[in-house]
Write a structure and sequence with these properties.
Layout (H helix, E strand, L loop, with lengths): L9 E2 H8 L3 H9 L7 E2 L5 E3 L1 H15 L4 H16 L1 H6 L1 H14 L3 H12 L4 H22 L4 H22 L7 E6 L7 H12 L3 E6 L7 H7 L4 E5 L6 H14 L4 E4 L1 H5 L1 H6 L3 E2 L4 H20 L1
Parallel strand pairs: 4-5, 4-6, 6-7, 7-8
Antiparallel strand pairs: 1-3, 2-3
Length: about 300
């Protein structure tokens, strides 16, 4: 049982929007198959954590690969056992890549980091590398810092490396991109831009044109910048729960002054999805692939409305 206002928890409607799984199916996965265990408020309302949302996406991925729903529980249990078993983890290719890259980051060895990253890209798609390697790596670095085993310097080192990789891709391929143009920035007071960089890499691979404004962007300047750059959408990222004044005052103002969709991703969009929607913006969650699919749907819907 939990309170209605526990931070980080979202209702079933928000989860349905973020994952594409309708509430009826989510309730069936809980009741009939025991795959999900949302918390309940004092009034019986289901509330889901970011870990629940990640689990739902994992279930969707297994079903997309052809697995029957009755098999999913056993596969999830086996995966958990593999993660807990050091010998099994050592045989997991993604675990090997993560260990290798983490070791390079801890030693501030950019040559080894580059070699490890390129080795993964030679075997897997950029989406797989982002989802299975880079995103878990960012989580691990954050956990190292929180536990006292790591340092802010490690995160900065990896962030600078990602910026260099993105810059190289822009230099060699940006002029060939012809997709929608997005203004991409972090929310105010958000200094961690690694998630934004991973999103930008994935967007760039899909042919989007990007205007990158980086960390701690004052939102008041966004409407003019989006207009001057002729952007099709403004995409903001945040890992922290947004300031209430930003959501209730600043965000509605910039949405009203911006002639294109305002989209918010990252953990901030999970913490404050209802407030973001109330301000007229669109939350898309913190899963990069699912977030991009939502961005594409919003842009397509905008095209349909303008042509009707």
């Amino acid at each position: 049982m939990t309170g209605d206002s526990d931070p980080g928890l979202v209702p079933i409607g928000t989860v349905a929007e973020l994952t594409g799984v309708n509430p009826i199916t989510l309730r069936a996965w809980e009741r009939r198959h025991g795959l999900i265990r949302p918390r309940r408020t004092a009034t019986g309302r289901r509330m889901y954590s970011p870990a629940d949302v990640a689990l739902i996406r994992q279930i969707v991925d297994l079903l997309d690969r052809g697995m029957r729903i009755g098999q999913v529980g056993a596969e999830l249990a086996a995966e958990e056992e593999r993660r807990a078993d050091p010998e099994s983890a050592a045989q997991d290719p993604w675990a090997v890549h993560r260990v290798r890259m983490t070791d390079a980051i801890v030693r501030f060895d950019e040559d080894e980091l580059e070699e490890s990253y390129n080795a993964a890209l030679s075997l897997y798609s950029i989406d797989d590398v982002t989802r299975e390697l880079l995103t878990p790596l960012l989580v691990a670095l954050g956990e190292r810092w929180q536990s006292g085993k790591g340092s802010v310097a490690e995160e900065h080192f990896f962030g600078f490396y990602l910026r260099n990789k993105l810059g190289a891709r822009f230099h060699h391929r940006a002029r060939f991109n012809t997709g929608p143009k997005l203004l991409v920035a972090c929310l105010p007071n958000e200094q961690h831009e690694n998630g934004l960089l991973l999103l930008s890499l994935a967007l760039h691979e899909r042919g989007y044109r990007l205007v990158l404004l980086g960390a701690n962007m004052p939102v008041e300047e966004l409407p003019a910048a989006a207009s001057q750059a002729d952007c099709d959408a403004v995409v903001l990222s945040g890992s922290l729960e947004p300031d209430p004044a930003l959501l209730s005052l600043s965000l509605p103002r910039i949405v009203a002054r911006t002639d294109c969709p305002v989209i918010i991703g990252g953990a901030a969009s999970l913490h404050s999805g209802d407030a973001i929607r109330a301000a007229g913006a669109e939350p898309v969650g913190n899963d990069i692939v699912a977030g991009i699919a939502r961005i594409e749907a919003l842009l397509q819907a905008g095209k349909s409305e303008s042509s009707s």
